[in-house]
Each structure stands twice: as C-alpha cells, then as structure tokens.
Amino acid sequence: MAETLFALDRRNVHEGQNVFRGERAQEYYRGDFWVEDAPTVDVRSERRAVGAVSIIRQRSSSNLFFRRSRQHIREDATDLSILWFVRRGEFAFSNQCGAKIVGEGDFVITRSTEPFLIECRTGPAGFSEVLHVTVPTHMLRGHVTQDCSGALVVSDVRVRGVPELAIAEKLLGDVFADDGRLCDSSARLLVETAFGLIGQAVRLLEEPRPARRSIAERRLEEVLRFIEVHLSDPQLSTAMVAKGCRISPRYLSFLLRLRETSFSELVWEQRLAKARDWLSSSDPRDISISEIAYGVGFKSPAHFSRMFKRVFGANPREYRGEGAAALPLIADAFGDFSGGSSLLQ
Asked: Mapping DSSP to helix (H, G, I), strand (E, B) and coil, where does residue 53 land?
C-alpha cells in the first residue's frame, strides 16, 4: 500500500530539502531539492516499496528542481537508476553532456553516479506528474545493459509504437495503486516483469527494424503455431496440419525444409522435450508417467518409454530418479535421429 513520502504547501515549502527523502532520509540519494516560489504550492509524493525498489508518484502545482553534484556523490556513492514515466508537464535533464527536455508520454532512465540537474515543469493543466521508480542499478542491469549515466531517453513512446513501455508503466502503476491485497511475492514478480519489458523495449528501439517477412516465413509461423497447439493430439499428422493451415502437404514439407527439419523430427523433438520438462518439474505422487505420455500426444506409455530411452539413453522412470544432469540435451540427442512419418504412431 502506498504511503506519503512528503507533502509540501506554502506553509512548509522551505522544508523541502529536509523532507524529500522521507522521514528517515532513506529514499533517493543526497542532493539539493527545492520548489519554485509560486502563489500556489501543492507538492505530494507517495511511495510504494517493493523490496529494494520504490515506486513513487509525484504531483506538483509548481516546478520542482533536483541537483546532484560531485560533492554529493563523494558523500553518498549510492548507485541508483531512476525510471521516469512523464505523465503531465515536462521533464528537463541537464549534465556535462548537454540538456534534454521530454514531455508527456515520454520515458527516461537516469543514474545517480554522474552530476546532473533535473526539473519537473508544470504543463498546460497547471501541474506536473511523474511515476518514477528507484532501483539499485545492479538489479536493473540484468534487464537494461545500456549505459544510462547521461540519461537514456525514449521520446513519445506511444506514437513510436512501443507497447512494452506502456504495459510496463501500467504494471508499475497497478502495483503502486494496490490497496494491500497483493502479496509481496506477486508484487515483486510484477515489478520484475515490468523491468524485463523495459529492457526489451530499449533493445528493440536500438535494433534496426527487421525486414518484412516473406509469405513463406509467415506461413511457416502459422504451421509451427498449429503444431504447438495440437501437439497433445495423437492423431497429429501432415494431412491434419496441411488442412488446418489451408496449404498442401507438399508445401508443408517445403516450409519445414526452410527450418531444416522434417515433420516427424519436429513433432518428436517437441513432444519429448515437453515430456522431459514435465517429468523434471512434477512429483510422481501428483502425476504418473502414463499421464505425461498421453498428455504430450503419445498413443501408449510403452511407446513413449521406448522413444524416450532411444533418444536420451534412459527410460522415463530412470530419468525421474537420476535427474536432468544425467541426460543429453535434446538437440544433441536428435543429431543422429533420422525421423520419418512412420515414427508418428
């Protein structure tokens, strides 16, 4: 549940420097914080903690400033990354490399390890609002590998079509707005997912746009999806896939050759891989080997056991006893596997 980090008005506006880090001065990092002198002062910052991460919603009717100098960095070397979602007004960031100004709908990542000046400016509506997330940089580095010391800016994300950032903002906003019903582990999972989406969005924006896919590539994707959906059906066959994808069996074979595989090899590889994962993640008391065999599309447990041992060198029961480390990777196991339609029985 969110709590008030600080609140300022005309009566206590000059106390901003002393209260912006919270009652125990544990949020953010050291710096100079002040509020522009204005007829109306209404600043409110609310915080939701999720482990070492803080999700903060900050609203203000006047411009806000935050400066971090080299002296502050010497006194407090905390390395935090701040994820800024600009909801209202403008966000101005300047350092020794220059200045950047972004507006509503933009996304910025800043770090505490370089001197900077930040200004949250009010917009046409008369106030500014940002949702920002403070996270130890070592935690974020697993998702965002780019150097953000000079501020990483993603401008006009909605117009540029980056849905990952919009979804990440919603996830973080939902965690912030939770009224206490969300358990801590679920909140952590949602925050971690949001970080993953942000990292994916940054990578996509840096990569060149992929070339348009050919008709054959699109058809192959449809075929692979159909096989994935119907993998548990023991009647799965080339005729069934061709009919379901509205192509000829000959064209199906051509498409699979683009992937350098045959129909039987692809289906067996997927079925045995899923069976292996299922065996390793399940308890024998909860699900039997026979149920797993039928669940991945085998017609009989005996057939499943023979094929599993043929590929991995151990039967399913032995695998459950010995563990995954004792068996080869499925890609290696299929290296000398000739496959053939006769195996799909």
From this structure: strand
The model's pTM? 0.72
3-state secondary structure of 92: strand
Residues near 229 by Cβ (< 8 Å), separated by ≥ 6?
A: none
Domains identified in the chain and CATH numbers:
3-206 (2.60.120.10), 215-343 (1.10.10.60)
Q: Which of 343, 336, 332, 328 is nearest to 268 (CA)?
A: 343
Three-state SS for 242? helix
pLDDT per residue over 51-106, tens digit each?
Answer: 999 999 999 999 999 999 999 999 999 999 999 999 999 999 998 888 889 899 89
Question: Across the beta sheet with 107-111, what order do the strands follow?
Answer: 3-9, 42-50, 53-60, 128-136, 80-88, 107-111, 152-154
List C-alpha distances in Å: 111 to 80, 140, 142, 152: 6, 11, 15, 9
